[in-house]
Write the structure tokens for this entry.
Amino acid sequence: MCGIFGVISNNTVNKNQLLKVSDVLKHRGPDDEGYLLFNKENDVIKIAKGNDTVPGFDATHINNCDNFNLAFLHRRLSIIDLSLHGHQPMTIDDGNLWILLNGEIYNYIELKEELLKKGYKFQSESDTEVVLTAYKEWGEDCVLKFNGMWAFVIWDRKNNLFFFSRDRVGIKPLFYHHKNGNFIFCSEIKGIRTYLNNDLILNEKQIYEFLIKGQIFVGESDETIYRKVNQLMPGTNLILKDGKIIIKKYWNLKLTDNRFSFDNNVKRFKELFRQSIKFMLRSDVEVGTCLSGGLDSSSLVAFASEEFNKKFNTFSAIWPGYSCDESKYVDILNKKYSCKANAFSPDIDNITDILDKVLWHQEIPLSGSSILAQWYVMEKAKIKKIKVLLDGQGADEILSGYPDYLIPYINEMIYSFKWNELFSYYSSLKQNNFSVKRMIGIQKHKIFHKKNSAFPVKKDLLSKYTFKTKFTRPHLSNFLPEYLKDQIERTNLPVLLHFEDRNSMASSVESRVPYLDHNLIEFAVSIPTEQKIHGTLTKIILREAMKPYLPEEIYNRTDKIGFSTPIEEKLNKQGNQFYDFALNYITNSELNRMDILDRNLISKENIFGIYSLARFIEIWK
């Protein structure tokens, strides 16, 4: 896991700004620092080192290098092949192929064996060299062979092109700015902003989207918080040749017709889940796990502990005395599998300072405090010197775990004429507030739904806003797998992966997500709905597959908490202290001067998100 940055230009690269970018990205890669510099006029390539380059790497210091038109910068978090051979930028083929890679290719061992049989030789034990060699053998199609998370660029000197790629679901980020013959790319927007000396303009459309939809859904388009800065979308390649860009989509999530029995699908799920975990345990440093106590993370810890004979360091944010506290379940699982527990209650006395740090790292505003729990967990892992964590992200999206998914589930039973199934589960549905009256109301909402905003905005802004996504509400979907596909590709999952990357990398921790192996995603989404949900009991396949591994108390859980926090509840218990502070700040903020808020409707329930946006604008304007 790393931070990558580059400038491809007809002009001279600004070395002072390049060095500032290196400092800005240090959190993504504190273990090593490397540079590739190229002068077009004399066709000279230089490798340079920086202040954080690993000892023993022989190169000229960047301070002594000048006059170059191309610069690649790599900040390394060393995970696989910790030796000097893993240093980047890396080259093969007599300097004709160069790479910057952020991420991990988990099946690199299998690919390396395949390439060795074809006569290729390797100098390192890293997955990075495998990626370069795979490109040499298969060209652009090499990405179809990769199982992993990645954002990389390969400089193909023979063909005079730059090949960029991002993994299938966007676990790893990549941003770029293309203007006046300059192409600048980076793992985080702040790198581009730093290089351009903050000469960027905020994208007001993203601010409107946050207020109306309650979140900036980063999967809906390639736009970002800044005009003229784009993201390379998940499952997409980009080719830069002669100053022109070609973008190609190489992966879309396809819904297949799964007609296998429930028992066969349970067996297949376990096989794919096991293979995914096996891949993601590949590391030359210790691998720990996040553990919330819920079904998803508990299944991951239990299954991996049993199948691979592991005693993990587990990391859990707990909140004794609050309804979101899951310490009971955390303790049960840790004891069952003799895990090395790291459960703690975060100190939130300095919440406004922490929020500013999180907003700087996240590069998007926060609608609530739930994402802070993950931030604290990653900080704890860093303190304990655990550089890799497994996390349960994505299980809800692929296996239908969120309560809102019950709405398209009910619609599917109605419109697919599965009425016997609907009647058989009606008692369970009714007990959970899905009476006949509410079901009729859902159908009315499909026809007569009106625009609503998550945060209070003036009516004229709401009336002009055009929703980009097909399913603005779950009520509009009549087929659950189609809704899950939208959640995975466009709405919910991309923003959660954005949070995951920034929270983990802020603490120099690599987060791996076994539920999001692309083979597992493609299989799980196409499992028939009736094998995923029974009434209001969700994730049936996961429950059945994990039954031999989970303690009964966790196996039988039906509540959904996740990485929740009582932060807003605690702030509100302080009376009006935070509310008055936040409202005063909002009143004097750039956000208020934009004249889009309906300030009469600001309340304790929504002020955290509005304050977050106001601070975000101040930090990033």
In short: The mean pLDDT is 95. The chain has four domains: 2-103+150-249, 262-399+487-565, 404-481, 574-620.
